[in-house]
Amino acid sequence: MKLIDGKKIQLEMIDELHDEVEKMKKVPKLVIIQVGDFGPSNKYVAQKKKVGEKIGIEVEHIKFEKDVKEEDILKKIDDLNRDKNVNGIMVQLPLPDGFNEDLVTNRVANDKDVDGLTTDNIGKLFDGKKAFVPCTALGVMELFSRYDIDLKGKHAVIVGRSKLVGKPLIACLLKANATVTVCHSKTENLKDITRKADILIVAIGKKYYITSDMVRRGTVVIDVGINVEDGHIYGDVNFDDVKKKASYMTPVPNGVGRMTVISLMKNVIKACREQTK
Ligand code: NDP
């Protein structure tokens, strides 16, 4: 089994993107909007700030109290949409209970939607038009490319159909000419399907759910899952068990998670380039 090393790729990309930013006329700027004080979100925002800083991207973090009025958040997004110095805007999810995530994320202007989560952007992605690819899906595709994993004609099975991960991957994998099957919590005989995968991507949020009996020998296994238990992070795939059969595998941590953050920065640079053209 060959390890797909997200940490190594992230470090390579930090250098590449840093060089790219240095040559740009404007310093790209990302604004992250957070509501409340959810622990994992604090951690993700800190990671984004750290990576942005290393690349030379300006990252502003706006943190609202959890009792802020939704209309105040929308007004802030409107202001940022108009601000020519801001190139990318992302809303750190999840929002606390009571907020309309769909309404808030859709308020971001299409050309600044670096998370790729507006309905308009998702429509364009599926229509094969120019769009921001949501960061985790973009990161997974980057791994295939950097490890020369050919997708053409291959059977890619995605387990999980979320807006953030599973759904955008459908569009990306189809564009790469893979044959795509999508599974979810109502899928019957999951194992029969996952065993037919050449490429298996798992994003369900259940620790070690995928075991070696669910995987065919030689499969490329991408584990998107992040499950935190007693301060430790576990994937959705039982790594030590499945590695006996996989040809390539991502670890957790230091796999896809690393790619999500760097892909966000890639999208911010792309947004800045488009806006300053
Ligand atoms: P969601 O909860 O939004 O979606 C989970 C999906 O998994 C749903 O489609 C659900 O089906 C499906 N599912 C749940 N249980 C099963 C099951 N037993 N069999 C088959 N399908 C199942 O989660 P996300 O997509 O946001 O995240 C998934 C995981 O990936 C989490 O661990 C999350 O932390 C992680 N993640 C990691 C990222 C990274 O950067 N590495 C980024 C984003 C997420 P249904 O639709 O029927 O409910």
Short account of what is shown:
This protein is of the alpha/beta class and 277 residues long. Helices cover 41% and strands 17% of the residues. Strand 5, helix 7 (166-175) and strand 6 (179-183) form a beta-alpha-beta unit.
3D structure, described in words:
It is a single chain. This protein has 277 residues and is α/β, with parallel strands linked by helices. It folds into two domains: 85 residues, Rossmann fold (3-Layer(aba) Sandwich), CATH 3.40.50.10860; 122 residues, 3-Layer(aba) Sandwich (Rossmann fold), CATH 3.40.50.720. Helix content is 41%, strand content 17%. The chain contains ten helices and eleven strands. The strands form three sheets. The chain has a six-stranded parallel β-sheet with strand order 1-11-8-7-5-6. A three-stranded parallel β-sheet has the order 3-2-4, sandwiched between helices. Strands 9-10 form a two-stranded antiparallel ribbon. The longest helix is centred in the last third of the chain and has 21 residues. It is globular. The model has no long low-confidence stretch (mean pLDDT 97).
